[in-house]
Specification:
838 residues; mainly alpha; transferase; TPR repeat
Length: 838
């Protein structure tokens, strides 16, 4: 600590003792006594910065945040060279998870007390949290110099060098540390992790021979306790060293231990110089021969049989898939179709599967036998049932809803009380565009076993899709805490991403943008919590020497914002902000919805006899903005959208929808170069994707003459790469010629035509969309629904009604093409069914 202490910081002996008491009171959370003691000091020394800061910190901890921060800042101003005031200021920032500012305060504190161990340790933790690896190395060096007797400081420094990319120095620290070890006890789990990390560093440096030697040495000495991990690392290093015979033996030993591991098979074949991902035709016989050998070795393992289906073709595929399907149907495996459907990317394989199943169904119906098998006592009745179950999923997946319904109805006649059958009928109706019928059948499935959590969860999901969100929450409430504010609040506390996404989507479909945005923001906050979790895990890892797990956590956190759930929620939230920018009046809908809700709840509360009060014993909600009006009232919706999207930049190279939304936001913000980059990325993913085509036209329609010369030049150059230099009408027509029977391409061309011609092109848009109803075009419900909305915007209500009637003829099961009042009737039918169970 510095010896040049300012006179105003020095307290008399009595007050100095009281100040130490204040510190103890804070640490033991005796906040009121702490404030009283601090006030005693401040009566005599009102400008004592350290006491003011401590009083502010205590107030901050008592949820008097603003008052506390003011005192802390005042304390800092009064004593700028005190490490205590800066440390306190950092603690206040850390409680708000403002790690950047926290670290700045800690570094400022260290200027005045360079060897303060507590601040050094906390600074090291923050530097890792913020990925300041170079500074972290310096801090760790200081800690090791001050406390070389603590072995965790040695290991932490090695980790710091490794994360900073300096493997050589990490190895030097490890070797020096390991050389000092004496009398190592057997089964030392902490040192086991150290030796595994040493192997990892050698492997990272490229010294695979030394890594293998160390691994085998410590394994033989029984210093490394993770046997499975040792085998995996050894097999991987042997493969890198080119010792393929030894590598094959290692992978085979792992397969003997777990013959159902996809990863082990992939690594085994990699050691053979083969790949299971799109293998060349000449390699397939070798792959099939090896997989057949594994099938013989491990007859009860399903993975080698399933991998063979990916590789085999033609008759070889038929000969393998037939027994695989029959075995699954005999066992009554509900997940068989989910297992098989990835093969449908190959049309020939899909046709073979359909042929086998249809023949099997005919044989079971006529003679109760399996084609090609000798006549015996016959199949169990369940084989026929599961065959119908599989076929119904098969036809539904292919969009042949009528055929799928015929199969599932036959299955219902066979066994009317099997939940899986009713659930599948609900799924078929959902895909056919009937969310109301789907919800009704899922509710019937739920009633077959009201105690089943999965069935109740599925029912809630389908009720949300039908717009009955309150009923969905009641179903979920059967399995949440009874003293929670609501089922939704409990599920949010449990970080249920699926629930939050489904409810957000349900509110979005109803136009309740505030509620939808609240749910999407809740998902984003959960990922913030995931990110914060690594902060506490660092200290634990340091104590317990579990740094290999911590390194895996760091790698996971670095790609956290690329998680599909985050991308989906961020994209949906950004779309709402785009809507708010395009139509600011939408921001006031939350107020109207809140008023409507209050009026609706008054008669319900009176009927329940509680006059609007919460039931006795129920938790009180802290949510004062149920409609999300605060979120909708943002003055800069595009900035909010940009902030959300920017956190995933660099982690979403393969998410086309994400880049489309990035383009939409950037274009509206006038960030044309950013919009161009996003469009280039999207086009590199799928150059002919309908959304990409629409955005290329939208970008080309823009006038960039007001931009700076170098910006306009860059935009012009990139635009010429995205679309040939020709008229937009011709460009749009050529796109349609390339995809004449694609429903999504026809819709995209119509949207592009609207951008090109505006209101003058309404008749052409109508003519283009009418192609969706031609026999050679096979539209889906979602595309037709979007076309219905577009034709209403462009051509008016009468033309929209004509198109609606045509869609109803084309999709007789799709209730989404009903008029609003008709859909209201269907929704009431769902309500009646749900209410009858309560």
């Amino acid at each position: 600590m510095s010896t040049n202490v300012p006179p105003k910081r020095v307290l008399p002996q009595k007050e100095a003792a009281l100040f130490r008491t204040v510190l103890q009171m804070y640490e033991t959370k005796l906040y009121k006594k702490g404030i009283k003691t601090a006030d005693t000091i401040l009566k005599k020394f009102p400008e004592h910065g350290e006491t003011l800061s401590m009083k502010g910190l205590i107030l901050h901890s008592m949820d008097r945040r603003e008052e506390g921060l003011e005192l802390i800042k005042k304390g800092v101003r009064l004593d700028l060279t005190s490490h205590i005031v800066w440390h306190v200021y950092g603690i206040a920032h850390k409680s708000e998870k403002n790690y950047e500012e926290t670290l700045k305060c800690y570094l400022q504190a260290l200027k005045f007390d360079k060897e303060n161990l507590n601040i050094l340790r906390e600074a090291a933790q923050l530097q890792l949290q913020l990925r300041h690896y170079e500074a972290h190395v310096e801090t760790r060096n200081t800690l090791l110099r001050l406390r070389p007797q603590l072995r965790q400081n040695w290991f932490a420094l090695a980790i710091a060098y490794y994360l900073n990319g300096d493997d050589a120095r990490a190895l030097a620290v490890l070797q020096q540390f390991e050389g000092s070890l004496k009398n190592i006890a057997d089964g030392d789990a902490e040192l086991s992790d150290v030796f595994l990390f040493h192997v990892k560093v050698l492997e990272s440096q490229g010294d695979n021979a030394a890594a293998l030697a160390l691994l085998e040495e410590k394994r033989d000495e029984r210093r490394i306790l993770d046997r499975v991990g040792t085998r995996l690392i050894r097999a991987r290093i042997l493969t890198k060293l080119g010792r393929l015979e030894d590598a094959r033996e290692s992978w085979q030993s792992l397969l003997r231990r777990n013959p159902d591991s996809y990863d082990h098979y992939r690594d085994y074949f990699a050691s053979e110089g083969l790949t299971l991902d799109d293998p060349p035709r000449e390699a397939k016989p070798r792959l099939l021969e090896a997989l057949d050998r594994f099938v013989t070795l491990y007859p009860r393992a399903s993975v080698p049989q399933r991998l063979a289906l990916d590789v085999a073709e033609g008759e070889a595929f038929r000969n393998r898939v037939s027994p695989y399907l029959v075995s699954g149907l005999r066992r009554g495996s509900p997940s068989l179709f989910s297992d098989i459907k990835s093969l449908y990317q190959d049309d020939s394989k899909r046709a073979i599967v359909e042929d086998i199943l249809m023949r099997l169904r005919e044989n079971l119906a006529s003679s109760n036998t399996v084609p090609g098998e000798s006549q015996g006592k016959g199949e169990a009745p369940t084989t026929y049932l599961w065959t119908l179950y599989f076929l119904s999923q098969h036809f539904s997946y292919l969009g042949r809803s009528d055929k799928a319904l015929a199969m599932i109805n036959e299955a219902l006649e066979h066994t009317p009380a099997l939940p899986e059958i009713l659930m599948t009928k609900a799924r078929i109706l959902k895909r056919a565009g009937d969310p109301y019928g789907a919800a009704q059948w899922m509710e019937k499935a739920r009633r077959l076993d009201g105690q089943d959590r999965f069935l109740n969860g599925k029912c809630a999901k389908y009720l949300m899709r039908s717009g009955n969100i309150d009923a969905a929450n009641k179903r979920l409430g059967l399995f949440t805490k009874k003293d929670a504010v609501s089922p939704g609040a409990d599920l949010e506390d449990m970080q249920s991403l699926a629930y939050l996404q489904q409810e957000g989507d349900a509110w979005f479909r109803q136009g309740r943008l505030g509620r939808a945005l609240k749910r999407y923001r809740s998902i984003l906050k959960i990922f913030d919590d995931f990110e914060d979790d690594q902060f506490d895990f660092y200290a634990y890892s340091l104590r317990k020497f579990t740094f290999n797990a911590y390194l895996e956590l760091l790698a996971f956190e670095d790609r956290l914002r690329g998680h599909p759930a985050y991308i989906t929620a961020a994209t949906a939230a950004a779309k709402i902000y785009i809507k708010l920018h395009d139509d600011p009046e939408l921001a006031h809908e939350g107020d109207q919805a809140a008023k409507h809700n209050r009026k609706k709840k008054r008669p319900e509360a009176a009927a329940n006899g509680n006059n609007g009060k919460a039931p006795e014993g129920a938790a009180m909600s802290s949510d004062v903005d149920g409609e999300g009006q605060t979120l909708l009232s943002t003055k800069e919706p595009l900035r909010e959208a940009q902030t959300i999207l920017s956190r995933s930049d660099g982690l979403t190279r393969h998410h086309l929808d994400f880049w489309i939304v990035v383009f939409d936001v950037a274009l509206r913000r006038g960030k044309y170069l950013q919009a161009m980059r996003a469009l280039q990325t999207a086009k590199s993913l799928q150059s002919d994707h309908p959304e990409v085509h629409v955005r290329v036209v939208e970008m080309t329609c823009r006038d960039f003459s007001a931009c700076e010369a170098h910006v306009a030049h860059t935009i012009d150059r990139v635009a010429s790469e995205l679309a040939p230099r020709q008229s937009l009408e011709r460009y749009n027509a050529e796109y349609l010629q390339r995809h004449p029977n694609s429903p999504s391409a026809i819709l995209a061309a119509a949207r592009a035509l609207r951008l090109i011609k505006g209101t003058d092109g309404s008749e052409e848009v109508r003519s283009l969309l009418s192609q969706l109803l031609h026999s050679e075009c096979v539209p889906d419900v979602e595309t037709s629904s979007a076309a219905l909305t577009l034709i209403g915007e462009v051509c008016g209500q009468s033309i929209q009604e004509e198109f609606r009637n045509s869609c109803r003829t084309r999709f007789p099961l799709a209730s989404i093409f009903l008029r609003p009042e008709e859909q209201g009737g269907r929704r009431r039918d769902v309500d009646m069914l749900v209410d009858s169970a309560e």
